[in-house]
Amino acid sequence: MHKLNFLGIQSDHGLIFKAATYALFANSEEAGIELALSSINEQSKSFVISQDPERFSAKSDKWPQLKKAQLFALDTSFFIENSTQFISQIIEELSYYSGFRGAHLIIHFSEDLANHFEAKLVKKLLHKTQSIAERYNISLIFLFTGKTAQQKAPTFLAHSKLIDGVAHLNSHLMNHNLYFDFWRSEKGVVSQISYQLFFEQPVSAELNVQSEANVEPVYQNLEQVFISKELLPSETKLPPHYLICDDNQSVAEYARENKAATVVLCASHDVKKTELAALCYELRDVCGPWLKIVIKNKDGVLRHHDECVFLTLGVNLILHTTTDISRLMSQVQALQGVKFVRTLPKDYKAVLAHAKGVEAKGYLTPNSFVDAVKLQREASLSTGISGVLVILDLIKGVEPIDALRLFSVKRNGDIFTANQSQVLLYLHACRENDVDNAIERLFRLAISEFFAAHSIYSQDLYIEQVCRELKHADDNKELEDFSVQLLESAVEQVPLAMSTSGRTAVVHDINRFPSRKPCKAHPLKLLENN
């Protein structure tokens, strides 16, 4: 018997029976695939069908039982043209494989195909799969992934007599909530059960205990505001419900006794970010969802990367450096009555560790580039830190090495590599709107002189596809390693002296490569016109 094999899921939850059909919905394709893979075991034959089977095979290191499964590609046009008959045709073909009877089958539909599952199609599909599953004694899982995939769950729930279980996985940053709408068990049917999933090895789950009473506690200090004095100009006049505190720690002490108040903390050069992050997390964990936590970015020390981390750790609002005290009070007023509803991570240290990403910067070999991007994307998924992959198409006749020499990267996580006709650049903690400005800072000349066009990818599906193609080309020895050439052509400052009419000028040629011989200075004689 198969099951959703997470340590901590109770024995009568997540069981997968033979001659049964199930539907899983996940807003994250990455997490949804891992959830489905957890159902595979080595005792019975398993088949996986997906538009992109390589996304499954890439996880064989984490899920070794996948190595014994057989993977097949689902053709998109074939499904669209044969949506009512496709399941019968697939089963008919698979039935010729040894071990299919009594096997475990996963069919994955990404977001574009999931949108085709209208009510009539779902009803016909479930009628067919019910008879097919019984005939071949197979367990069948339909996996739907994508941001809009969960919208199809009610359509399957409407035909609960034809299906044995429906569950959906809602992923946000490092939080993964698995909710069983209903699921057949040995004791009957379980419903409205939820687990917090953890995908770090070993994968585990924790049952979410539902509160018996939905009545919210009544607080008397909803409008009370505690603010650090570092944020206030001298002689600032505040309303009576504002209390000025000496520092962030003093603010926190008042917050622990007033769990529905608003606290305004200071982020500056004198405050360590890690300590402030720990403080915010502790306040949210101890005080609960009604505490409003505001951070004022006093010295501009918080960047996009830091803001994402603080929001993940329980902060309600981060104010810009230029926000004056009047605007601050308006923003605080707007927060009154707001409840923090996001799920708090289990461990703030894990969030900080994920947020670091990779420390590499500059040029990487194609294989190292792919590995680094994978780590960066994991950080993005865990903390909400955006990152983009930029593909710059070289102008015909321009060699990759000539363009690579002109990149100057100073920030960890900004990495690049090249193939025969393109430069691939990954920008960590960068939004799509900021890409053009970022490239201008990284490239010493106008990009139009070297590149014909550039494409920006921010979605994991497309970034992974580009990385797979790059890795495949590198494995086939189609790509060149430019590391040695870039090392040899490292830019040096070469002072040149030019003497004219007794005057000396020093020119610093920062773009001169050491492989070239420096020019010798010669005295110039000025000729007078007759």
UniProtKB/TrEMBL annotation:
<dbReference type="InterPro" id="IPR017745">
    <property type="entry name" value="BcsE"/>
</dbReference>
<protein>
    <recommendedName>
        <fullName>Cellulose biosynthesis protein BcsE</fullName>
    </recommendedName>
</protein>
<dbReference type="Pfam" id="PF10995">
    <property type="entry name" value="CBP_BcsE"/>
</dbReference>
